[in-house]
# Entry
Amino acid sequence: MVRICIDAMGGDYAPEAIVQGCLDAVRDDTSLALTLFGKEEAIMPFLQKAGAEKERICIVDCADVIENNEHPVQAVRRKKEASVVKALRALADGEGDGFVGAGSTGAVLAGATLIVKRIEGILRPALAPMLPTVTGTGVLLIDCGANVDCKPEWLAQFAVMGSVYMEKVRGTREPRVGILNNGAEEGKGNELVKNATPLIAQMPVHFTGNVEGRDITSGDVDVVVTDGFAGNVALKSIEGTAAMMTGMLKETLLSSFRSKMGALLIKPALSGFKKRMDYSEYGGAPLLGVNKPVVKAHGSSNAKAFYHAIHQCKQMVEGGVVPTIEAELAAVMKAEAK
Amino acid sequence: MVRICIDAMGGDYAPEAIVQGCLDAVRDDTSLALTLFGKEEAIMPFLQKAGAEKERICIVDCADVIENNEHPVQAVRRKKEASVVKALRALADGEGDGFVGAGSTGAVLAGATLIVKRIEGILRPALAPMLPTVTGTGVLLIDCGANVDCKPEWLAQFAVMGSVYMEKVRGTREPRVGILNNGAEEGKGNELVKNATPLIAQMPVHFTGNVEGRDITSGDVDVVVTDGFAGNVALKSIEGTAAMMTGMLKETLLSSFRSKMGALLIKPALSGFKKRMDYSEYGGAPLLGVNKPVVKAHGSSNAKAFYHAIHQCKQMVEGGVVPTIEAELAAVMKAEAK
# Structure
C-alpha cells in the first residue's frame, strides 16, 4: 500500500475537486491509501456519496489554511494547524510515503524544505514541471521558480535530479539533458550558464548541450536545466502563448457561419489536438531534492489533474526517485573527493 | 528624402529577397533612397527587371561578407570590406540616415556599437523586437540578447528607450512599461529585477510593475523590460510554441477526410488568424541606444519582412527616436545630478 498525504484545502477548486480526484484515484488503484488534511466539515459532504473506495481515505481535521497571498516561510512557521503544514509534518514523521498539494507554491516549497528537509548533500531543491512536446514524450523543466538566483553547482545537481526523475517516473532510458541558453552555439550564455555547463558535463547524465527557448518543446531533450527565473519565464511564456493561440483559434472558428460549419467537421480531430497539448496527464510539478516525494499540483487543478498528480506521486514512491537521487549524489561526491 | 544603408548580403534569402524588398519599398515610398552594400555581381541580376524605382537605389560594391558562424567582434574588426561593416561605416559617416540588415545578429550588434557608437550616456544598446499581442497592438521586448548579463541601471535605460520607441514609431501614447518577473506580486524577482524595479520607477516612463511570462503577449503593457538572457528565452519560447501549435494544427486538419473538408470551410477565417500572428509587419528588431537608427531584420526575412523593416527604419528616422532618447537621457542625468 502506498500512502499519500493530501492537502485537501489547496487549489482554486478545493476541497471539492481535490476530494473528487482522491476518490477517483483510490477507486482506480487498490494499492493506494490517502490521508486528506483539511477542514473535516468542508471535506465530508464530498465524501458522503462515495462507495467502498472511501475506506482507503481518512481525514485529519486541520483548523487552518495557508492562502496564496501569505508570506510562505512566515505562514509555515506560524500556522502549525494549517492543512499543508500538518500534511508535510505527517510525511516527515513517516505517516505517509508522499505528498500532493495544489495550494500556494511558496507554502509547499517552504514547508517541504523546512519540514521534510533536503536530501543530504542537495544544495537546493528544485521545482520541475513537465511540458508537452511535439513528440508527445514530454520534457522536464528544472528549475521553474524555487530558486530565482542560482549558483552553477545547483544547476549541476538539477541535471542529476531531473535525469533520475525522467528515468524512474517516465521510464525514459538515458534521458537527454540540455541547458537552457540564448543560442545553440557553444560559447553562448550568461555567466551562470557558462560556469554551469562544464559542471553538468561532469555529472553522470547524458548531457547534450545548449537548448534554445524555441526547442524546449521540440522533444529533442528530456530534461532542460535552468535557473528558477529563466525557467519560470519560459514555462509561463509557453503556457501563455498556447492559451493565446487557443483563444484566438476559438474566436476564429466562431467568426462566421461558414467557419462554424467547418469547426463542426474538425471537432473530432481537434479533440486529439487538445489532448496532445493537455498538461494535466503529466500530473503536477515534483519538488526534487527533498527527503520524500512532494508534488505541487497546479493551482487550477480540476479532479482529473489532481488524479494524475496523485498517480505521479505514487510513481515517484515506487520508482524510488528519492533514494536514487541520494545514491547518485553520494557517488558524485565520492568521485569529487578523490 | 530618407536614405537607408542596406546590408544586401545578410539573411537566409540574400541577396534576392533583400533586393526585392528594397525595390518594393522604394516603389511604394517616393521619399526613400536606398544604398545596397554587397557584391555588385550578385545584386545586379535582381535589379535588372526593375523599372524607374531603381533610380533611388544605388549599389556600393563590397568584396566580403560576414557569416553567421564568425566571431562577431573579430570579424567586424578584421573584415573592413564586409557589406555590413561598410554599410554601418557609411551610416556613421553621415552618408545615410539609418541601417537595415538581416545578417548575423552578433555582427550587427558589434558593428553598430564599434562603428555607429552608443548615444552619449547610454550604458548598453539593446535589441528590442516587437511581438504580436492578443489585442493586435504589439509589445516591445527589450533586451532580447544584446546583453546576457545586465546591471540594474541598464534595465532602467532600456525602459526609457523602449518607451520612446513605442511612442515615436508605433504612436502609442504614454506607453505602459512593465518588467519581466517570475510572479505578478510585489517583492518577487531575482536580484537584478529587485534592484532594477525602483530605478525604473524613477524614470520618466509610465511604469506599471511586474509582467509574468504568460502576460507578455496579453496587450496589457506596451514595453517589457528584461535582461538579454531572459528576454531571449521568452522570445524564443513564444516563437517556438506558436510554431509548434501551428504545425500540430495543420497536422490535425489534414488527419482525416472529414477534417480536410472542415479545413476548407475555415480557411478564410484562418487566414485572418495567421495575419494576427504574423510578426513581419512589425519589421525587425531595432537596436536602441546607438547614434543612428539600426534595424536587425530576422535572418529568415523574405521580401515582405524586409520591406517592413525598411519602413520601420524610416519611421525611426522621421520619428526622431535617436534624438528623443538622447534628450530624455540628458534630462534624467540632469535630474540625478541635482
Q: What stands out?
A: The longest helix of chain B spans residues 228-253.
